[in-house]
């Protein structure tokens, strides 16, 4: 007698945006996804923290410019109080201060509001799995900023990186997402994720933004 098939765990998501005209339709659209449950909609950072405290919550889809408590401060607070909750930023702002502030506060993903439903759901799933997804515009701005600020003297990399891990590192530094790296190297995205997890552990890299910076400083990009 076969065992009953276990349904995959649905991701519990909080949608945060101060504009009801954005927040409510977005929550409704995400709720149509077969693996996502929108458990709360918040108009500011304080409401986000209240929703997460009532939990459980896997991912917060976070606007940056909100009253009471903005998205960057809320992301920082979540990292301190609820480190298992991932944050994906969804905002109209792609300036250097917003990008670096959000990623520095611990956001795992950063999308602009030009992103479609598939992009948003993919970023939510990636964040829940501990991966990062950055909008192409955001990647380009991040690369330009890091290259401008990178020191002239190249930084060294751990000597125990494999040739393939160095290839992946180089492509991260060039701004390629996991799918682009997989296509470039003719491997699966799962294989790319394994290489990224390994090189992050070996090099002591915190997140995708830190990886881009380190790759540029090491002269790989």
UniProtKB/TrEMBL annotation:
GO terms for molecular function: DNA binding. Residues 154-219 form the HTH luxR-type domain. Keywords: DNA-binding, Phosphoprotein, Transcription, Transcription regulation. The modification 4-aspartylphosphate is found at residue 63. It holds the Pfam family Response_reg. The keyword Ribonucleoprotein does not apply. Residues 12-128 form the Response regulatory domain. It comes from the Bacteria. One of its GO terms (biological process) is phosphorelay signal transduction system. Gene3D superfamilies: 3.40.50.2300. PANTHER family: TRANSCRIPTIONAL REGULATORY PROTEIN NARL-RELATED, TWO-COMPONENT RESPONSE REGULATOR. This is DNA-binding response regulator. It comes from Streptomyces sp. gb1(2016).
């Amino acid at each position: 007698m076969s065992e009953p098939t276990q349904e995959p765990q649905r991701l519990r998501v909080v949608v945060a945006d101060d504009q009801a005209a954005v927040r409510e339709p977005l929550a409704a659209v995400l709720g149509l996804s077969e693996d996502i449950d929108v458990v709360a909609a918040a108009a500011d950072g304080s409401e986000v923290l209240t929703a997460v405290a009532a939990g459980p919550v896997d991912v917060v889809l976070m606007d940056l410019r909100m009253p009471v408590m903005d998205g960057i401060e809320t992301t920082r607070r979540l990292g301190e109080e609820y480190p298992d909750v991932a944050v994906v930023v969804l905002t109209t702002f792609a300036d250097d201060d917003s990008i670096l502030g959000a990623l520095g506060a611990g956001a795992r993903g950063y999308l602009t509001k030009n992103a479609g439903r598939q992009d948003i759901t993919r970023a939510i799933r990636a964040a829940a799995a501990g991966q990062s997804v950055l909008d192409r515009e955001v990647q380009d701005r991040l690369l330009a900023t890091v290259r401008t600020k990178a020191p002239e003297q190249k930084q060294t990399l751990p000597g125990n990186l494999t040739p393939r891990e160095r290839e992946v590192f180089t492509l991260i530094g060039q701004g390629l997402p996991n799918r682009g790296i997989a296509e470039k190297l003719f491997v699966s995205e799962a294989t790319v994720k394994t290489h990224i997890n390994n090189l992050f552990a070996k090099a002591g890299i915190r997140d995708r933004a830190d990886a881009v910076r380190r790759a540029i400083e090491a002269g790989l990009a």
